[in-house]
Each structure stands twice: as structure tokens, then as C-alpha cells.
């Protein structure tokens, strides 16, 4: 994420909060949000985000379901 790489942590936080509101099952967004919170010194919040990311990752499909649609056309 560009904001994170540039050190614009508050912009990254806002973008990632929007992302997890749009798709609360996206473990990658939760993980990145955990990184951002850690960089901001919000360690408890970071921990919660990273735990959520790990929980979601353990149930995520290996391939996105959308990649299977051509098989059924």
C-alpha cells in the first residue's frame, strides 16, 4: 500500500478502515491495518487487527471463488 510505504500512516489507516468496512472478510486488509496501528503506537488495536487477520486467513479459500466461474460457464 502506497500510503504505508510513504509513512502516511493516518491516510493508510483511513483507507484500510474503509477497506475492512467494504469487505470485512479480507484478511490482507486486516493485516495491513494491524501494521499501521503498530506504526502509530496503537499496540492493543494492532493486536486485535492481526488476530482478526489470522482468523480470517485460516478460513480463506486457496483461490478466489471468482476464478472458478469460467469452469461452470
Key terms:
73 residues, mainly alpha, 4 helices, elongated
Contiguous runs where pLDDT drops below 50 for at least 5 residues:
none
* Rg: 14 Å
Oligomer category: single chain
Specify the helix fraction band: 55-70%
Q: Decide which structural class fits the backbone.
A: mainly alpha
Overall mean pLDDT stands at: 89
What share of the residues does DSSP label as strand, in percent?
under 5%
Number of β-strand runs: 0
Categorize the overall geometry: elongated
Q: Kindly, what is the distance between the CA atoms of the first and last residues, rounded to a whole number of angstroms?
A: 34 Å
Order of helices and strands: HHHH
Number of helical regions = 4
Query: What does the main sheet amount to?
Result: none
Briefly say what this structure is.
The protein is mainly α. It has helices spanning 2-6, 9-22, 27-39, 43-59. It contains four helices and no strands.
Structure description:
This protein is mainly alpha-helical and 73 residues long. Helix content is 67%, strand content 0%. The protein is built from 4 helices and no strands. The longest helix is centred in the C-terminal third of the chain and has 17 residues, at 43-59.
Furnish the topology, listing elements before pairings.
Elements: H1 2-6, H2 9-22, H3 27-39, H4 43-59
Helix pairs in contact: 2-3, 3-4
Amino acid at each position: 500500500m502506497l500510503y504505508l510505504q510513504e509513512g502516511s500512516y493516518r491516510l493508510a489507516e483511513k483507507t484500510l478502515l474503509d477497506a475492512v468496512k467494504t469487505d470485512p472478510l479480507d484478511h490482507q486488509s486486516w493485516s495491513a491495518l494491524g501494521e499501521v496501528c503498530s506504526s502509530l503506537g496503537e499496540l492493543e488495536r494492532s493486536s486485535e487487527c492481526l488476530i482478526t487477520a489470522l482468523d480470517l486467513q485460516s478460513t480463506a479459500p486457496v483461490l478466489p471463488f471468482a476464478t472458478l466461474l469460467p469452469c461452470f460457464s
